[in-house]
Design brief:
Order of helices and strands: EEEEEHHHEHEHEHEEHEHEHEHE
Radius of gyration: 25 Å
Shape: globular
Low-confidence stretches: 1-12, 18-61, 352-357
Amino acid sequence: MSKSRQFGLSLDPVEGTNTLHATTYVTVGDSLTIVLVHVQHSSPVFSSRFHNSPVSNDNMSSLASLPPELIREVVSYLPIASLLAFGLTSKEYYAIQCCSISTLRLGVFPSRLAGMISLMEAAADISYIHSVQTVLPKSQTRSKDVVIRSQNVVIQNVVDRHRQTLRDLEIALWDLKKPSAYSVSRLVNLRRLSIRLDHPHTRHAKVDQKFWEISPVSTVWNSFFAKPDGKKVFGRLQSLNLERAGITDFQLQQVLKNNPMISDLRLRKCLALTHETFEHLARDEINKRLETLHFTWHGGDEIDDAILDYIEKLPNLKSLSLHGCRNINGNLVKKFNNERWHIPDIGLPQDVENTEKVLEIDPQYK
């Protein structure tokens, strides 16, 4: 029987000095507890105390004496600010810090308010240990194109730095460009991917609100299924969330083909998609694995009641949302679910309860 392990670590910089107050607790079963304090930025110096431990002080005199795998496991539970501070203490710990981030929610915005709103709109059912909202300097927010270019530079640099360890990634920006898309496509261990390009509550003097109402077709999405060497992209994805993405039916089908383990698919305001996507989901092997399908805020004429027949061929759906698809009859969706689908969690295209209510006006009111 394997022994239980508990980890805890806090790092607090001392203002005006190059010292971090670090406290680390490592408990393996009942045999070992280590407390390490005082970390110097220039050269790590540690004071160690051992309680109930058969290990000698000579063998465990510093954090450096712990196996790198154990240190990485410990610091991976740190808040992002403390984890980055830990990486500043030495080159060795910087390398460990880069390998310790496996879940990341990264948003890059021209203002703090825009970042806060985006975070509130993020998927509530997905939790990320490390969540970062980056605010661009004023010089990089003068125009829409400058903002988008700056956002992609930040995304590319961060993703490249943690390429080997990222498993869950959510990025929020205004538009995705090829260099950053290529960086994301190189995440070989990725399990969950969320790309959020829909931020209609953002206010910027150089951005028309109509910008958020379109999702132009783009070859950027080819990066997610085709590599120059012909190898598959990703391959281990289990969850995919795209917002205001100009991905086409063919591009999405190729992504799904390369990632047969996807069971959670969320597509919000992906306006280039048509009924062909539902037809593919119904006939492809994914129909046996798909448990969550959210296809929302699509007002295209091709997304109508005809897609409901394809949904019936997804037998393992536990959650379905068609919210905001204005050409689908909500009453018909409700009827199909009650009589045929029996999906436990369903989001209707509109407020069905109020569709047949009559508005009464008092003729005496002036």
